[in-house]
Design a protein that fits this description.
- The complex is a heterodimer of chains A (485) and B (112).
- With 485 residues, chain A is mostly helical.
- Chain A has helices spanning 2-25, 46-98, 104-131, 163-181, 191-214, 236-254, 270-289, 297-325, 330-344, 353-378, 386-404, 428-457, 464-469, 471-476.
- Chain A has 14 helices and no strands.
- In chain A, α2 (46-98) runs antiparallel to α7 and α10 packs antiparallel against α11 (386-404).
- Chain B has helices at residues 13-23, 70-81, and strands spanning 2-8, 29-35, 42-46, 49-53, 56-65, 89-95.
- In chain B, β3 (42-46) and β4 form a beta hairpin.
- Classes of the chains: A mainly alpha (485), B alpha+beta (112).
- Chain B: InterPro entries: N-reg_PII, N-reg_PII-like_a/b, N-reg_PII/ATP_PRibTrfase_C, N-reg_PII_CS.
- Chain B: Pfam families: P-II (PF00543).
């Protein structure tokens, strides 16, 4: 045992040394390409030649703009599909493997239902509430039924992609955010109550939060004139804090699963969860790098930061587990990667790869501590750790963004102006804290009110018999695994 | 006729099967099983939470043999299944009153 621990410690020291040396010696490289042009010179008068050159120049410029638009649009469509893949197979498999086998279809169905129901709702009203023009807190109703959301770009959001591309990309975020909450109340909530809860939650919690951070004139929108410039590149506050905190509130309101924590409820298939987590990691490139809303260098920067953040957190969660329990588990490694992806989400387009590494390393240990220790101390039944990973990781990531953000990566406050704390913008962590506090408050208050209403209207929990029987049979009349055939 | 039931480590199944065939046993039934003896199980961790797993994977063999074959079969099983560590399994022997071959209604040892 002593030998094993010393091997682990030596390994960790090696990783630490590598990180430090990489931080010191690491650099960035800029590669430039100069487009070649060929001019055809003919025997003409000087005026004719100048006119011809001007015409050619205008044609070249138009071609470059068209190519850029096509490139940006193709990347954004791919990103939108990647983000949907995070819900569809990704989260559904990740969560599905973590529940007991009698609940796999019920759990997967909750995520799938979000793909359908939230999409319909988005077209009807929530896109307009989140991204339409309105006040500092919520958008208006000008874009209900997607009126005015056509193929012409809206320059305030993204100048080079059709507004419909932007709309459908943001829709994928609106789908996965409520789907993340389902991890907290897994194995015990009525399907009907879940649907009503999620529709109300998307309208009254998600839409205002998305508008405040990303909408035109939103209170926290650093890029579009918000009064409190909170940095949230791909949804640390909008997606992870709101879903994680709402998840905790729902788990507390609903109560524990029957038998928790006395009856063992281990995951029924870590294999499914493993596949799901790997799909989440891949899909997250669309989530974070796509949030650049173009296919340029910022997308590359966010892509790289995302990957380093995830890998570092997988390393640090595994290391923590190895030291405390003697073995690095597969579930621990994938949980660490997800925690790192969550924490790097708000920072992705603002930090260097080495800052991303630090954020990931901190997030892996912090989320492991929240899941393995803090949950036990308080005794709440957050079934699949939606709060422990998304709420805690999202909050941590949002605050760390305020420290690590760099104007060299994204001069969002203007060229040469300090962005993060380490650059000298001492107020940024405070702005981040305000953003987080607003997300926590809205999530707690909004979720509590919605839960109360749904509970009084149709009841939240399945009956005791239905819970014993499992959600697959009691809610959907099917079984995920039919052992008899 | 006697029935021999043996609960053994899954990893020893092929060796035991070969030893029984070498000893002249013709038929057997094998089932995947879970269980534990005196040693109980082991501990698993999921996200820091401890679960004690006390039903471990085992393989159960059942065979019915003529009286003169019983000792040979027992020796074959215990010889091939032994690792010397805890959890090697158990062999149970019981009497069988009758055996019937369904295909042609033969009865007794000839039906084995």
């Amino acid at each position: 045992m002593r030998l094993r621990r010393s091997v682990v410690r030596a390994f960790l020291c090696l990783v630490f040394a590598l990180v430090v040396s990489a931080s010191v010696f690491g650099g960035s490289y800029v590669m430039a390409q100069s487009p070649g042009s060929q001019a055809t010179v003919t025997e003409q008068s000087q005026a004719d030649r100048i006119a011809a050159l001007e015409k050619e120049d205008a044609a070249n410029k138009a071609a470059i703009v068209a190519a850029q638009q096509a490139g940006d649009n193709s990347w954004m469509l791919v990103s939108a599909a990647l983000v949907l893949m995070m819900s569809g197979p990704g989260l559904a498999l990740f969560y599905g493997g973590l529940v007991r086998k009698k609940n796999i279809l019920g759990t997967m169905m909750q995520t799938f239902a979000m793909m359908a129901v939230i999409t319909v709702l988005w077209g009807l009203v929530t896109y307009s509430l989140a991204f339409g023009s309105g006040n500092a807190f919520i958008g208006g109703l000008h874009n209900v039924f997607l009126r005015g959301v056509g193929l012409t770009p809206d320059p305030s959001y993204a100048a080079t992609i059709p507004l419909q591309t932007f709309m459908v990309y943001q829709l994928m975020f609106a789908i996965i955010t409520p789907a993340l909450i389902t991890g907290a109340f897994a194995e015990r909530m009525k399907f009907s109550a879940m649907l009503v809860f999620m529709v109300l939650w998307a309208i009254f919690v998600y839409s205002p939060m998305a508008h405040m951070v990303w909408g035109k004139g939103g209170l926290l929108n650093a890029a579009l004139g918000g009064r409190i410039p909170c940095l949230d590149f791909a949804g640390g506050t909008v997606v992870h804090v709101t879903s994680g905190v709402s998840a905790l509130v729902t788990a507390l309101y609903l109560g524990k699963r029957i038998g928790f924590p006395k009856i063992p409820m281990p995951p029924h298939s870590v294999v499914l969860s493993f596949i799901g987590a790997c799909m989440l990691w891949v899909g997250w490139f669309g989530f974070n790098a796509g949030s650049a809303l173009s296919a340029g260098t910022l997308a590359t920067s966010a892509f790289v930061a995302t990957h380093f953040g995830a890998a570092a957190a997988a390393v640090s969660w595994s290391a923590a587990e190895w030291i405390r329990q003697g073995k690095p588990s597969a579930l621990g490694a994938i949980s660490g990667a997800v925690a790192g992806l969550v924490a790097i989400t708000p920072a992705a387009g603002f930090v260097t790869p080495m800052s991303a590494l630090w954020i990931g390393l901190i997030a892996g240990v912090f989320c492991y501590f929240m899941v393995a220790k803090v949950k036990g101390w308080f005794g709440y039944d957050d079934s699949l750790d939606a709060f422990g990973v998304h709420g805690a990781g999202g909050t941590l990531g949002a605050i760390l963004t305020g420290f690590f953000a760099s104007s060299a990566i994204n001069p969002i406050f203007g060229a040469g102006k300090a962005t993060g704390f380490f650059e000298g913008n001492w107020m940024q962590p405070v702005h981040q804290l305000i953003g987080v506090a607003i997300a926590w408050s809205l999530s707690i208050v909004g979720t509590l009110i919605i839960l109360f209403i749904v509970d009084k209207l149709i009841g939240l929990r399945v009956s005791e018999e239905a819970e014993h029987e499992g959600l697959d049979l009691s809610q959907h009349g099917e079984e995920g695994y039919d052992w008899a055939h | 006729m006697q029935k021999i039931e043996a609960v053994i480590q899954p990893s020893k199944m092929d060796a035991v099967k070969d030893a029984l065939v070498d000893a002249g046993v013709e038929g057997m039934t094998i089932t995947e099983a879970r269980g534990h003896g005196r040693q109980k199980g082991h501990t698993e961790f999921y996200r820091g939470r401890e679960y004690s797993v006390d039903l471990l994977p085992k393989v159960k063999l059942e065979l019915v043999v003529a009286d003169h074959m019983v000792d040979k079969a027992i020796q074959a099983i215990s010889g091939a299944a032994r690792t010397g560590s805890i959890g090697d399994g158990k062999i149970f022997v019981s009497k069988i009153d009758e055996a019937i071959r369904i295909r042609n209604d033969e009865r007794g040892e000839i039906a084995l």
